[in-house]
Amino acid sequence: MDNASHPGDSGRPLDRQILALAVPALGALVAEPLFVLVDSVMVGRLGTAELAGLSLSSTLLVSVVGVFVFLAYATTAATARRVGAGDRAGAVGAGVDGMWLAVGLGALTAVLLGVGAPWVVSALGADATVAPHAESYLRYSAGGLPGMLLVLAATGTLRGLLDTRTPLVVATAGAAVNVALNATFIYGLDMGVAGSGLGTAIAQTLMGVVLAVVVLRGARGLDVSLRPRAGGIWASARSGTPLLVRTVTLRVAILLTVVTATALGPVALASHQVVNALWGLAAFAMDALAIAAQAMVGQALGAGAVPRVRAVLRRTLQWGVGFGTVIGVIIAAGGWWLTTLFSTDPDVRTAAAVALVVTGVCMPMAGWVFVLDGVLIGAGDGTFLAWAGVVTLVAYVPLLAAVWAWAPAGGAGLAWLWAAFAGGFMAARALTTGLRARGERWMTLGA
Predict the structure, then answer these.
(1) Cβ partners under 8 Å of residue 385, min gap 6
(2) What are phi and psi of 189, to 5 degrees?
(3) What is the per-residue pLDDT across 338-360, written as a single tens digit (0 to 9) for each?
């Protein structure tokens, strides 16, 4: 490996590059949830049953898309490594392969979800007043799944090329188009919840097409074939499978946490939603740093610049812990005020405020974990992350069992639950990824 230092390996130049990637990435991450928020506001005016149907089906849709986030992560790593090695044509070619895989998976998932909408809605426990609206949203929004997954793969390609601005512009424009389409379909054409699903599907498809055009223009300029290549698509699927396993373990952990909150009672469950919403918002900032780390580490490893990798690792971890500390202080100190934005129930506010103190204390560690995840993903260390995900999930289950057995019922038990998740589960992730990052093997996987 070439151990020569790169310009800007430390200090302000490195900070500027991290922020130049992380800030636009944060904007794009925040823009995406606006789709569901806009849908909720518009559909909420139609009635309670319509809003409940949207809540059920949109949660399912977001979960499905979340499972395929590996399309972005794997493509970022593959593209960045090739760019660092000086093979820009190979980098864009890997991105094209990832986009074909995304379209294929999206089409298959769209058919399954569209055809199986009644069964899925029924399995989720929707009653007779909610089910028709949930089914309508699923059927109409399912058509946008190829576009949604294409957005992931194309965004991953651009991140690997150190371009986080284009996804931000497209995400912002897409959110605006979504508002206009939803207003037209829901109110103008009187389509109700179905109009919301259709508007979101069209907006996501347009976003996918625009991002794909940007990548494909670059491919043509480098004389890269745009045709689907079985070998390249299979390579993308193979490299993404470990990250799929990792994502599934995280989703299972989150699902088990919700199930445990449900067992603690209605007040705990309502309070959990408040804490979880704020946790998710904080996670966007951490994810933005992780995205910057993915791209920068991938390119540095592709170039064989170990000192550069270590500099990026050290600095992004400092940023992650620093952000986590600031966010943790805000959440812990402002918990009671923040809860008033979500509920008027004093029991819910109290339970959520106490749990937010626990969450705030653990936030610096969460910043460490998010950044290390990004570093190892950028290094192509998906197999380790998959096994680590399984190990941390196994370690988390006894903690949840302890909450079930010994935590007080009601809102008082919520602090126990978040100590288990934000403390225990995140500590297990910090330990596994931290030990991995201290070694050298993860830096030689693509050598």
Answers:
(1) 242, 243, 246, 373, 376, 377, 433
(2) -100, 0
(3) 888 777 788 888 888 999 999 99
